[in-house]
Amino acid sequence: MRTDDGQRAPTAPGGSRSELFVACLPGLEPLLVDELSGLGLAGAPAEGGVELAGSLRDAARICLCSGLGTHVLVRLAEFHCVHLRELRRLAERVEWGRWLTPGEPFAVRASCRKSRLYHSGAVAERIGAAVGAALGVAAEDAIAAADDGAPAVVARLLHDRCTVSLDVSGAPLHRRGWRLAAAKAPLREDLAWALVSASGWRPGEPFVDPFCGSGTLPITAALRAAGLPPGLGRSFAFERLACAAAAGCDALRAEVGTAGPGEAARIGAADRDAGAIAAARANAARAGVADRIEWCEGSWRDAPGLADPAPAGALVSNPPFGARVGEAARLVHLWQAVGARCRALPPGWRIALLAADRRLALRTGLPLRTAFATQHGGLPVRALVARVAAPGGPGAG
Ligand SMILES: C[S@@+](CC[C@H](N)C(=O)[O-])C[C@H]1O[C@@H](n2cnc3c(N)ncnc32)[C@H](O)[C@@H]1O
Fold first, then answer.
1. Under CATH, which number does the domain 18-167 receive?
2. Cβ(356) to ligand 1 under 6 A?
3. Does 217 sit in the ligand 1 pocket, CB within 6 Å?
């Protein structure tokens, strides 16, 4: 909707629909479209996320239920702007009092690209001042008091168009609250979720990670088998909004958290590092899935479910790949051995490996295809997936 001077009208909170943007790691957009579709929300992939129309309640449900998103933004206004004074005037038109509670902290973030307004600090200052004036509070105090979980006003200038959104997630969604203990090179929780999704594993099937480190992958599988939404153990900025109750967000946590008994899948994990297994156990306990995972402190070959495989299952792992843990040359034999073990699994087993070094992954001899490519700890990485072939079939032998 646009106002008489061609600007987009501020969005009303509550049950009405707004433009939403769910941000994710680059490369995960198609998986995120599928995940949102599973929540009954139709979205279109964009760079670094997915755009969709939805209510604040939908945004809140995404915060609680998305394993792949990192932030959920509600678009509040969009306008052409080349002067700071104009920026402040237009930003004041948003009905801030309907979204933010006077006296409660809020954060402001700004970015400028290819625009006459190029100083992101000045843009953030004017946006903050506009919000403060509308709420009748001193913006500096509210901003200074903002913690990680506060609602954040996000202004983005591109080609002299300013979009103003509210980040209703607070801390990035992949910080789920249970991964406090970390071993070497831990996977980000959203990347672990993506690898599990890309593997094609279904809750109820056996799952094994023979290089589990701090346990991110088996814990993710256990949460999914238990039917527990990934965000259940943490708080979100949407819970602090003035309109949260009116939008029906209060009951949402209880609604999405009423999981049934879940699937009784066998989930096995191994690591040769005693500290990693201790960290993984503590993380699993915090996530509420300690009793769903069988741990092995020892060689990857002895991982529960791999040493004695079921007729169907999934091996999903992030084996050491050199650039982060040790040197790639020393790992060639390890990847070859993992490949030989995988190829000997019953036909139909699903394999998903995260690798930074494709040549190393090819040493497995598996018919791997790239499910997605993204970044991990500043490195380009790929999720490589395969189905174990029947003896004599393609990729076998
Ligand atoms: C890249 S890390 C896995 C990180 C894990 N996905 C996480 O989120 O924390 C690889 C792990 O493999 C383990 N590892 C290396 N060689 C092993 C072996 N031969 N047997 C079992 N574990 C091994 C290391 O101790 C390390 O924790």
1. 3.30.2130.30
2. no
3. yes
pLDDT in tens, 218-266: 999 999 999 999 999 999 999 999 999 888 888 898 888 876 677 788 9
The residue ranges of every structural domain in the chain are: 18-167, 189-228+265-387
What is the band of 3 on the pLDDT scale with cuts at 50, 70, 90?
very low
The rounded distance, in Å, linking the Cα atoms of 175 and 189 is 7
pTM: 0.93
| Residue nearest ligand 1's atom 10 by CA | 320
- Give the pair of three-digit tokens for residue 118: 């190029």
What does R_g of the chain's alpha carbons equal in angstroms?
23
Which pLDDT score is estimated for 109? 97
CA angle 383, 188, 204 (to 5 degrees): 65
Q: Which CATH superfamily groups domain 189-228+265-387?
A: Vaccinia Virus protein VP39 (3.40.50.150)
What distance in angstroms lies between residue 279's CA and the mean position of ligand 1's atoms? Answer: 12
**CB distance 213 to ligand 1 below 6 Å:** yes
Q: How far is it, in rounded angstroms, from Cα 225 to Cα 259?
A: 10
- Please name the residue ranges forming H helices in 100-187: 120-135, 139-144
Separation CA 229–CA 255 (nearest Å): 11
What's the pLDDT score for residue 389? 87
- Kind and range of the H or E run holding 111: strand 107-113
